[in-house]
Specification:
Helix content: 55-70%
Number of helices: 2
Distance between the termini: 27 Å
Structural class: mainly alpha
Strand order of the largest sheet: 1-2
Length: 69
Amino acid sequence: MAESFRIWEETCERSRAIVDAAESLDVTARFGDQPYSLHYILTHMIEEYARHNGHADLLREAIDGSTGE
């Protein structure tokens, strides 16, 4: 588990460095033929992170029966 957290922390550091180096949220990168702005990428990652946290919360509730607010 410590290795997983280390990888996650390094990935977060790398992502923060990329965002800090960007001139604005309007800069784009391409994935295949599609351009994506940094704004779009960050918004998408927040959405995905929230979705996966919601899944983890559902699993926790199924295990221990308690619900969060």
